[in-house]
Amino acid sequence: MKKISIVIPAYNEEGNVAIVHEKIKKVFSGLNDYDFEIIFVNDGSRDNTQQKLEELSQKYDEVRFIEFSRNFGHQPAVKAGMDNAHGNAVISMDGDLQHPPELIPKMIEKWEEGYDIVFTIRTYPKQISWFKRKTSDFFYKILSSLSDVNLTKGGGSDFRLMDANAVEVMRNFKEDDLFLRGLTSWMGFKQIGIDFTAHERIVGQSSYNLKKMLTFAFTGITAFSVKPLYIAAYLGFLFSGLSIIGYGAYVIHSFIAHTEISGWASLIMTIVFFGGLQLIILGIIGIYLGKIFKQSKERPNYIIRNKNF
To answer: Among 33-42, 69-78, 169-178, where is mean pLDDT lowest?
Structure first.
């Protein structure tokens, strides 16, 4: 009997863990040829998530939990679950029930057809706001154009199935700033995507705000590409060339028209503009240097305080 490991990061999900467990258990009650385990990763929750997980693990043998020493973030939590999973395939999904467990049989079906990675392509229901849809589409466009990974529109969800061989490769990554969506695409293997419609959260509110989305975008871009450095260099050449041409034309005009070269306001604005441009370029360089600095420390992605297996 093949075993499927379900990895679920949980941050302040005390009201959802029991519900998602029940839904997954119901799904596998119809999959008689498969055994399963659910690995909840408590990412430093501040509510009673850990207490709920301990209660579930005492009632049900398939429930495992990993408790972090503090909040390390969603991506390290997913990797921790994968590092400790021993199934023939591993499915990662969120614990807020926006990733429907009912899609698991179809993912397993594609895996049995020979696909090593089955990723999901997310679509939003009609009640999701226009702003949410557009910012999500813009995120994938920018990420795909500025990085060296090609993410399908809506295909950046962490709801995916990975064969044990692909999981083993993922375990060997020692990157500090984890971007699992990009790593999964970069790894290769035989992949296929399936569509799903994101559900609403059953309990609680999402902590994934615009700031976290922007931070996540910068992480993905700088983790897989040096294109921002090239863009900074091109901008430097472009504006230097424009300034030489523009100032040269102004000098020629002054000689022909017999006027003085003046204009303190335009001079100050030019200084401010190029000063800001230099700060942007230095900031881009600083991000990459910061990544090198953090990577050189070789600190672990996460610290486990407690687990029940």
So the answer is: 169-178
**pLDDT band at residue 52, thresholds of 50, 70 and 90?**
very high
Q: Over the stretch 292-301, which tens digit does the pLDDT of each residue have?
A: 776 677 778 8
Assess whether pLDDT exceeds 90 at residue 211.
no
Phi, psi at 5, each rounded to 5°: -100, 130
- The residues with which 91 forms a beta bridge, in sequence order, are 6, 161
- What's the CA angle centered on 33, arms 32 and 39, to 5 degrees? 85
Give Cβ neighbours of residue 170 (< 8 Å, ≥ 6 apart).
79, 82, 162, 180, 183, 184, 187
Question: What does the block give as tokens for 20?
Answer: 């998602």
Specify the pTM.
0.72
